[in-house]
């Protein structure tokens, strides 16, 4: 079936959650998988995509590795002008500490070179190894000052550990100091969480990813991270991993739990959970080409905090671009959604379509 020619529109379509995987990283993944005792979530996710003969798996792996003609062709077919690209999940976070710290700069250099080859089409996110927060902080500085990247991707938990633990907060300190938003991207569920999802086939993007990443973002909020780092900015995808839709209940029950003194981990914060969502987070619609959800999120978060994303190559559906072009929305709000919000968040030079 032929793909319709993308419509001419008065804005650039900037897709802000798009993935890549260099062959050097896939070689490391093969070594991890060959050991046979690896994390069950990783084996079920990347182990599947790297070995399955299915058309979907082969398409995804072919597109993940490409940072030139295949990717640009798909962007042209769908009308995407710019991709903001990040190392695919779980990135270096499945690796041991030494390997992760060594490979993160390699991945960043590979992506930076691709951005140099295609400077008007690609924008890169910095990948870091949370296994060593000090090294991660240094890599953020290098990514900004040497590679010209202005955002960071962290693929949710690292071996079951969450950024709400203060031992990771040097990463937040560096991100705030360098004005680099952190894109908190999904990861396969940790071993202590995955069993009931896996047995029902609901562990991946269908449901499990959103549950786990939403949990991670909420842990960061309730741990008081934004009271400590008030200028820190974060991005979460898939309509905010549903947190905006839960905001009323999150506020009510967080307040009730604080008052009850039921949990040592739940302490008072300076503001309500929803206030941090509105002031410290941006969300993208990655994987959700659904007008009602986008409009609700704009109303709740503010029009300047909701961005377009495709979730390439995991969800390469060119027709969805047309769905969103045709949303009943003001020209100004559509411009913000597709273009200017992304230019602001990721420090992309403004350009006319």
List keywords for this structure.
353 residues, alpha/beta, TIM Barrel, 6-stranded parallel beta sheet, 3-stranded parallel beta sheet, 16 helices, 9 strands, 50% helix, globular
Topology:
Blueprint: E1 14-20, H1 23-34, H2 40-51, H3 55-65, H4 69-78, E2 82-87, H5 97-117, E3 122-124, E4 126-127, H6 133-145, E5 152-154, H7 169-177, E6 182-184, H8 195-198, H9 208-222, H10 225-228, E7 234-236, H11 238-241, H12 243-260, H13 273-280, E8 281-284, H14 291-301, E9 306-307, H15 319-325, H16 331-346
Parallel strand pairs: 1-2, 2-3, 4-5, 5-6, 6-7, 7-8, 8-9
Helix pairs in contact: 1-2, 2-3, 5-6, 6-7
Structural features, described:
By secondary structure, the chain is α/β, with parallel strands linked by helices. It has a single domain (14-341), classed as Metal-dependent hydrolases (TIM Barrel). The chain is 50% helix and 9% strand. It contains 16 helices and nine strands. The chain has a six-stranded parallel beta sheet. β4 (126-127), α6 and β5 form a beta-alpha-beta unit. α1 packs across α2 and α2 packs across α3. The longest helix is centred in the first third of the chain and has 21 residues, at 97-117. The protein starts with 13 loop residues before the first strand and ends in a 7-residue tail after the last helix. The relative contact order is 0.14. The model has no long low-confidence stretch (mean pLDDT 97).
């Amino acid at each position: 079936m032929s793909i319709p020619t993308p419509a001419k529109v008065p804005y650039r379509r900037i897709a802000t959650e798009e993935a890549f995987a260099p062959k050097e990283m896939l070689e490391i993944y093969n070594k991890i998988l060959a050991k046979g005792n690896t994390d069950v979530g990783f084996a079920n996710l990347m182990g599947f995509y790297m070995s399955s003969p299915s058309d979907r798996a082969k398409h995804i792996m072919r597109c993940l590795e490409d940072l030139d003609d295949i990717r640009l062709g798909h962007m042209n077919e769908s009308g995407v002008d710019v991709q903001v690209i990040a190392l695919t999940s779980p990135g270096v976070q499945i690796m041991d500490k030494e390997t992760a710290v060594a490979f993160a700069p390699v991945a960043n250099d590979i992506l930076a070179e691709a951005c140099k080859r295609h400077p008007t089409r690609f924008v890169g996110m910095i990948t870091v190894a949370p296994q060593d927060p000090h090294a991660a902080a240094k890599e953020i500085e290098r990514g900004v000052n040497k590679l010209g990247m202005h955002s960071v991707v962290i693929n949710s938990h690292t071996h079951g550990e969450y950024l709400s633990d203060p031992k990771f907060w040097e990463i937040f300190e560096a991100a705030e100091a360098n004005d680099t938003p952190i894109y908190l991207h999904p990861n396969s569920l940790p071993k202590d969480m995955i069993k009931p999802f896996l047995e029902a086939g609901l562990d991946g993007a269908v449901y499990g990813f959103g549950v786990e990443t939403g949990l991670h973002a909420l842990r960061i909020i309730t741990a008081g991270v934004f009271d400590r780092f008030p200028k820190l900015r974060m991005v979460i995808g898939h309509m905010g991993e549903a947190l905006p839709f839960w905001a009323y209940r999150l506020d009510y029950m967080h307040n009730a739990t604080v008052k009850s003194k039921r949990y040592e981990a739940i302490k008072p914060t300076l503001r309500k959970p929803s206030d941090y969502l509105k002031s410290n987070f941006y969300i993208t619609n990655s994987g959700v080409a659904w007008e009602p959800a986008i409009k609700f999120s704009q109303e709740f978060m503010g029009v300047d905090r909701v961005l377009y994303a495709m979730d390439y190559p995991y969800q390469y559906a060119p027709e969805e671009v047309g769905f969103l072009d045709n949303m009943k929305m003001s020209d100004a709000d559509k411009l913000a959604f597709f273009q200017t919000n992304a230019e602001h968040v990721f420090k992309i030079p403004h350009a006319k379509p």
